[in-house]
Design goal:
Elements (H helix, E strand, L loop, with lengths): L1 H22 L6 E4 L13 E9 L9 H8 L7 E7 L10 H17 L2 E7 L15 H17 L4 E5 L23 H17 L6 E3 L2 H10 L18 H4 E3 L17 H10 L6 E2 L10 H11 L3 E3 L4 H10 L1 H8 L4 E8 L8 E10 L12 E6 L6 E5 L12 E9 L6 E8 L23 E2 L4 E9 L1
Helix pairs in contact: 2-3, 4-5
Length: about 475
Amino acid sequence: MKKIVIIQYFLIVAVLLAACNTNQPEPQGTTVSFTESDENFPNPERGLFSQTYYTSADLNNHASATTIKSLRGSQYKMTLYLHSYYLTDYMESDIPQEFLDRLETNMNALRNGGGKAVVRFSYKSSMEPKDKPWNATPEWIHKHIDQIAPYLQKHADVILCQQCGLLGSWGEWYYTDNGYKQNPTRDEDFEMRWEVLEHLLRVLPADRQVGLRTPAFKRRYLKMRGDTASTPLTAQEAYQNTFKARICGHNDCFVSSASDVGTYNGQADRDFWAEDTKYTFMGGETCEKCAQSNGPHAISEMETYHWSYLNRDYRESVTNMWRQDGTMETIMRRLGYRFVLDKAILTPAPKAGQEYKAYFQLRNVGFAAPNNPRGLELVFVSKSNPNEKYVYPQTEDPRFWMAGEEHKFTLACTLDAKMHGDYNLYLNLPDPYPSLHDNPLYSIRLANEDIWDEATGYNFIARVTVE
């Protein structure tokens, strides 16, 4: 509880100072300039993903840390996976321990391999009438949520977000069954759906989001919970411990028709997601090739709706077209955040025991901001003794480094009184979870030449001499 309160306090400070930081004048000091890189490289919590199905029929299939590591080094620089769990054989029974053990194994493999997963649970991968029921009854769905809850909580560090799932074929909330009315129109017909959504939101840690399949679902939910105008998130509302701030989206028929095969009911849906996804995750896959699938239009849509993750393989008729016309290279670089550091202005002649300031100008040339909590640190490492290291955490919140914008901010610390001599100054953006904080595979790399220290996950800024 104490950790959550501190995080929320820092967030409020960051929001209040955001406007000032964006337009603050340049200070006097030592200026360092940086060169932008166009290299595609792996970064946590963004990019192409590979989807794996874990069914109740094949409990021997599980994730491999070796495979996850190899895909980081492939041409796709992959750090994300969609883990789809099918509870087909447990629609009227508890989930057996063997299935839950595999969930544990998969999460450990992600952590050991340097990956994270979008997680979804469902019951059927078919919409055929012969395969009914397409989802379990409310009683069993809620029992199953309670069974998986301890694993979601224990391994939240390697979960990017959770797609709500559980209802309908593939967990996409359309071909629903067992009391969950298909194509509901009345408020009372939605209540059972919201009970599933809210159950997941309650059991997941407060810093993780749950995705709904269409903007209409979130808009309807907000209206029924008191936000009668169904307004999208604002900067002041973002990243708070509210259900509104924690509901994201996923589009599994991206650029597949004028309406993305029913994903959008009209312009109001589009306007809502364009704003709401500034502060919530958006990702998914295509499902059909059509006139809207062309590369330039897809990139424009990813910019508008702030895409962070995309299925590498599905649908191949579309993704192959993007590979052939060169669009995929741009998409791979720009999915999620991509931070380019342009300039740093540093305190000249720093002295031990005194205040040190570093002013930064950077651009986010990606499609989105990072939507999970992210640390930010100034790190000084002695040139003569690499074991002499000083780490200064900052309150600046990278989640507000919005896509398509330039960001200016000043970081400050009081140098340790024992410091003396030459130091390498680094900017570190680690994962805040203690299990991942010191793992360089989970730190953010800036898109600049000659800046990345692969061994530590630090971004080199300059050599400074402390008197």
